[in-house]
Amino acid sequence: MKRLCRLFGVYRSSYRAWRSRHAAPSQTEQALRQKITATHAASKGSAGARSIARMVTQAGTPLSRYRAGRRMKQLGLVSTQPPRHAYKKAHQPHLDIPNHLDRQFDVERPNTTWAGDITFIWTGARWAYLAVVLDLFSRKAIGWALSRSPNTELVSKALMMAQESRGKPAHVMFHSDQGCQYTSLDFRQSLWRYQMTQSLSRRGNCWDNAPTERFFRSLKSEWIPKVGYRDMAAARQSITDYIIHYYSDLRPHTHNDGMPPNAAETMYWNAQNTVAKNT
């Protein structure tokens, strides 16, 4: 081999690299590629190298972002995440309800600050509307509702689910945009019954409610088919699976240092219990 490499002017290291490139991957490499492929499939093609590296690592197999990127290229896996979208800005607050949150999205503990919003989804031959409530501590979706009408009843159902799932906490701040559903008398009375403080974004300013906008962007780019759903039942089942299983249990979130919302909240409550025992 040494003579042949000298004869053809090829470095021996290059020849060895060429041979190893065409060799069959080891069992360890095959197992890693299978995990990367399965993780990419679980995200419905939305996860990029950073997210896949975190999810595979959390599952027990250490994987860096760069190794994940190289394997994805070899396997022909590409993230379907769209580019960022620029929102227009405005500075007009609501006359009666100020913006108490004021973009202070980083909160110290659960059940202190929630945010809600509505988006539209194509189902069969009609639009459906999804309302969600996020706990800004972990960005976990704690309440949601799907309906054919974007009315006050829709957002009230989402808020009721959030209240029930969190044990009916009091003195929570609820933030949303200035949609008529959130400024209606019925909804404001619901907030009063739940002993919640209302906060509203400035008119036309999506950045004032950025966490919910980001949640909907992830849902639509990662999970919802580009052609929508065949009917309401399919939409309800798929969105529930996304919220409960993939988004809350598996999907890494930058706000939580790469942990899914459930893991971030579990870590918080474990830390609180430890402090309580030591005091």
TrEMBL record:
Which SUPFAM superfamilies does this UniProt record tie to the protein?
Answer: Ribonuclease H-like
Instruction: Tell me where in this chain the Integrase catalytic domain is found.
Output: 106-268
Q: Where are the transmembrane segments?
A: none
- The source's domain of life comes to Bacteria
Protein name (record): Integrase catalytic domain-containing protein
Q: What is the lineage of its organism?
A: Bacteria, Pseudomonadati, Pseudomonadota, Gammaproteobacteria, Oceanospirillales
